[in-house]
Protein 1
Amino acid sequence: MIASRLHNGRSLILPGLAALVALAILIGLGTWQLQRKAWKEDLIAQIETRAYGEPGTILPEAEWPSWRADQDEFRKVRVTGTFLHQFEAPVYGLARGERQGAPIQGYYLITPLKLASGATVMVNRGFVPTDLRDPARRPESQPQGEVTVTGLVRAPEIRNPFTPNDEPARNQWFARDPQAMAAAHKLDRVAPFLIDADASPKPGGWPRGGQTPLTLPNSHLQYAVTWYGIALTLIGVFTAFAWRRLKGSGSVELKQEE
């Protein structure tokens, strides 16, 4: 009987190791969701604190080298300058459509804004659908002379493994990266951040600003509870499996002795 139980106990080693690996993964996913929850709550707090109210001024150029997104992003600002439309950079992306919120393909127009000081800030002027990528099809969309832009400070877009490579020679862009765009056009004294223009009406209706999402979903606690719940279920299932196997071996031995 003892030998049989030892044998059955050894037969639980591989299932037990597999269960431990799965348990570690599930707990890791739950913990990661809690970390994401803290990050999301901090981001929501930043938006609520900075994105509303009267607009301020952008960070002075002397402080650009030490600019940090966690201290400045989503702040509402107003800036005046002259657009360099010859360097307009269309960045491929999706935007929510007018009908039933279905996403539509198109481009975000990133245009350098030359300040009176001689420095430059990249402005995301807004979204245009694919058929309006060519400026010739929206001639009213490029205001001349001095303009004032109100919008939100944004950090450069973070690339991921699925982001295609930009093709500056063809003016094809897939990430809102002000420094890469500045380098392609040999612009200097460029801010390390962008400004997402607000939804103020524009001649001809394009591009459409105000594309920064200010209401963010936060379901990370629910996801964390789900992963931890699956982990507890796994513990219960494996415990029942092991107990039945060990108990079953004992029952067989008793029947043989009878």
Protein 2
Amino acid sequence: MRLAELFRTKPLEQVLAEPTAASGQLKRALGPWDLVAIGIGCIIGVGIFVLPGVEAATHAGPGIILSFAIAAAACACAALCYAELAAMIPVSGSAYTYGYATLGELPAWIIGWDLILEYMVGASLVAIGWSAYLVNLLNNLLAPWNMTLPQTWTAAPWGPNPGVFNLPAAAIVLLLTWLLIRGIKESAQVNLTIVIVKLAVILVFIALAAGHVDPKNWKPFAPFGFSGIVTAAAIVFLAYVGFDAVSTTAEEAKNPQRDMPIGILGSLGVSTLLYMAVAAIMTGVVPYHQLNVADPVALVLNHLGMPWASALVSVGALAGITSVLLVLLLGQPRILFAMSRDGLLPEAFSRVHPRFQTPHITTLTTGLIVATASALTPIGVVAELCSIGTLFAFAIVSGGVLVLRWTRPEIPRPFRVPLFPVIPALGVILCLYLMVSLPGVTWLRFLGWLVLGLVVYTAFGRKRSLLNRH
């Protein structure tokens, strides 16, 4: 195996021709508002309804507010880089496709394999949070009759309160998988409706709880030190994965050169402000060490003696987390679709449904894997795994902008990253810094996943790659 073969790049002209040259074409049905809603639908969800409490209790304390700000700074640099590449290369595959055109086949495979970890593990995390809020809602409704849902079928077999099988988590994954197979436009319309409900509920929570904030609960602000704040920032970074999901739908956008930057950047600013506001209120109402639960927003309202509001927020949280899960389950199959089209995964993964024009085989495969993982896995493990995968992908995309600006300066760029090369370089540095801040056991799991990916590439992808055949 020659080293040059591992770093052969896919001609950009070939990448851009694929959406029309492929035997099965995805349907171009998404406008700018659809893309913005997809971004908001994925960004605002688990990061606001689940992660602030867990990370405040275990890593940052009230400093979780600053953790979100640090993560947002790194995220902004990466988002600008994503916007440039998504407008320039409007093809399915997100960071995997960008890496293939700029860095070479082996780096692209590593990115794609990493994105599988990011999306599937992220979807599992969100499904577990969705289940927790559903259980809280139903238990509140059943309380007058002194009844609760059996923990046996609402919790994973590992964790602080083990069960046998998390049935609600698996059920919602399979339902959304069916919706995604039915069509991209239908899925986008459902997502837009859910996003409106979600934003309304977040504003209700802020209005109800803001007046009960006790500044004493913010002291000490950083009980685990600044390193704890940075560790939490690295973990909550996964809350910003939404704009990455927007880029996976580039091949289904009506006018991707104009609309992809709108979708990516338009969904970022509002999300960051809401994250920081909710984190500040949450830690100001309830002492941070009591927030290590999967449904901290509901916990805050229960603490304030508002079980009716807790039930209302649980409805909104269910809606909000559903949209996140929907978008994650939308993004992953399109990455597998792109890798299959390049010959790096089995050919069946690049088939398109003749009626619905969706990648139905990869969508079904993703749904089955995520449903199983979410039913059997505790929430803490999947949060850390998802974060390291997200950070690695963002660092690669930021580096890809640097490479393409210097190697292919003549390519038209409908959107250009400002302050080049400072912003892309900062994106790389901040993402790598946050990766280093993650716990060592997370690195071991991540490296183990990458080693498994290299084995699969050596045994299958390298030989069957279309570039290798040519």
Protein 3
Amino acid sequence: MTGFELIGPPVLSRSAVLRDEPLRTDTARQVAGWPSAQLVVVDAEGRTPVVWDDEPDAGFLVGDAGSWDVGGGARLRTRPTTGDAPPPGAVLLGERDGVAYWAVRGKPDLAAGDDPAEWADLRMTGAVLDALGAGLFTTAVAALNWHDSAGFCSRDGSPMHPGNAGWHRHCEAAAHEEYPRTDPAVICLVHDGGSGPDARVLLARQPVWPQRRYSVLAGFVEAGESLEACVLREIHEEVGATVRDIRYLGSQSWPFPRSLMVGFHAVADPDVPLVPADGEIAEAFWATRADVRVALGEGDWAATTEAEFLLPGKVSIARSMIESWAAQ
């Protein structure tokens, strides 16, 4: 078998802040650091202001039709704090160089000079943010999404209130604590184990995706199931293939709304007919490494070329996996 590793970290796995758990319960230190802290303000649509070091290309500005990989550098535009202490619902993201970063829900403040056109979501900017911005934005979106859906106790329906600087919620009736949810999902690049330009990889398209958009296979881990068992089950359920030699590659958060994508690669026999699952997989096929390299050169799903097939953008761990396999 030809093995491989990721040639770089998945973009949403990067971070440059210290997640200091003791600080989450140190109210005095939180208050002392509040005047110099910075806020990551995220609106209800998951957007925050972004500063571009290089101008994004025109495709960035047209929403879902824009490119996920615009080739420029970007930084978050954080906001200074106000008041004497963190407000209820603020989430402590971490510290860097003595500066604490907090996440809050909000919207453009025109009086403070905010330009709504600068606000962008994580899907559009995650691949081009620096490590500080990528880690802050990913964590902010994940934590705030959880708070939005955790207003009531799962045991008795009582109101829940945030604590530990936003890292748990406690039940009003019984003080029961709940913590941010993360739903693990596997994503697996299935290949034939070969080498050279004729080696093959399995690509598939979901029915809701437009024509020519393909990726590798993924699925959620079920209760009581190991990650490797999930890989075996999901690949067989979705395309009828039986995989072997399952190897871990890497992981990244995917906070839409609260997933953790755990990446693997595995080997299957390309001569066994594929059986796409009705309603889940519209098409599946084996592509050569040479053809994948051509598709990667065309850009991503947003490309307007007449390429035979298009692959996900760099914000997705799928892109990291495919690029790493194609580079062998």
Protein 4
Amino acid sequence: MDAVVVLVLGLSFLLLLSLWRQGSGRGRLPPGPAPLPIIGNILQVDVKNISKSLTNFSKVYGPVFTLYLGMKPTVVLYGYEAVKEALIDHGEEFSGRGSVPVPDKVNKGLGVVFSNGESWKEMRRFSFMTLRNLGMGRRTMEDRVQVEAHCLVEELRKTNGLPFDPTFILGCAPCNVICSIIFQNRFDYKDQDFLNLMDNLNENVKILSSPWMQVCNVFPILIDYLPGSHNKLHKNFNFLKNYFLEKVKEHKESLDVNCPRDFIDYFLVKMEQEKHNPQSKFTYENLIVTASDLFGAGTETTSTTLKYALLLLMKYPNVTVKVQEEIDHVIGRHRSPCMQDRSLMPYTDAVLHEIQRYIDLLPTSLPHSVTCDIKFRNYLIPKGTAIVTSLTSVLHDQKEFPNPEMFDPGHFLDDNGNFKKSDYFMPFSSGKRICVGEGLARMELFLFLTTILQNFQLTSLVNPKALDTTPVANGFASVPPSYQICFTPI
């Protein structure tokens, strides 16, 4: 009986503490739905479609509101004006990374994606400069992507026009580009190490986008005490980290500090330069996590976009025909597409932008946090508060993109058929946390897709109108449904 009394008193104390913590801060934070003790508003959020829930909340509470995902408040920014004001106008104050418990357990605050403070600033600055040194934004990087585009086409020819699921092959191409940057070598598409890497990456994205992962990130205590897909995720992460560790050992043995070959070499050179600095962020642990971050981000976002792109091009064959007509007119059939072609291909450029807008790959991006107490729209947001930006609300804004739920390249074309830029185009987020590899991703999408359409007709096994483009999961990323496609040589 004594144990029961203690348990009841303990639970009562937790409930009172939860109510006090939630009530004491709500007067300073934006409005929002009333939270329940301990679990907050989680029962009011559809973990299978978080974006839809945020849209419904915004209709009641406006463009800035507070949700309690568990016992901690999260401020949600909905719509272009609120997102821009935070990420651009107050970029420094909103540049923190909010806690994401599942990957945080593996990364331990290191790397470039989930880190904070000086460590994040140094890793981001170093990563960006190293990618520039390795050719990002210049002809050398374009050459790498063109080589891989040619290899991709040759692999697609081997299908002999027969139907197949393109997921794996479309992942290989961007994965090999990032491998050439980090390891200085690409893999044959049938290499067993390469197959293992791809399997791990594909599985991780599916797990991270599942409803269970959204629950685990809200209640991280589940990670330690319950079985589930989070354990498989940790196993996959550890596999990748061990693989990178072996690569680092190989690089260290053959390192020439005067002639770094790739990202790992540049990092090892920096480590040598800072070996007498006890506060240095350049450690083996940080190298492995940063390389893993670049590898995962540089592979999955592009490969998923490519997979979605081909699905949309099959569903809308009239769009595909117009792109191929532009390819014939500007590039022809006898040379490889190059980045200079893009400025002469406004319709193709509009299609690529519309694909990224329509698929809404990262509906809420990764969570931010405020780095200091900040007054924002007459609310006072305490330092460390998690911030969620609804990229869906920006990419699907009805005023900027009429009929936003429709796939329409005209969203990025003016009345004369010229390409039209939009400040609302934020598939890579915005501000100080914008994707480091944005330039590389845009280059890959243009070169891979134009090279494919230069060489093949895309054929669906079903009536194009019957193709479903609804994502099968969109917790972390929008994951497209599986489909079969035929690549018929032109």
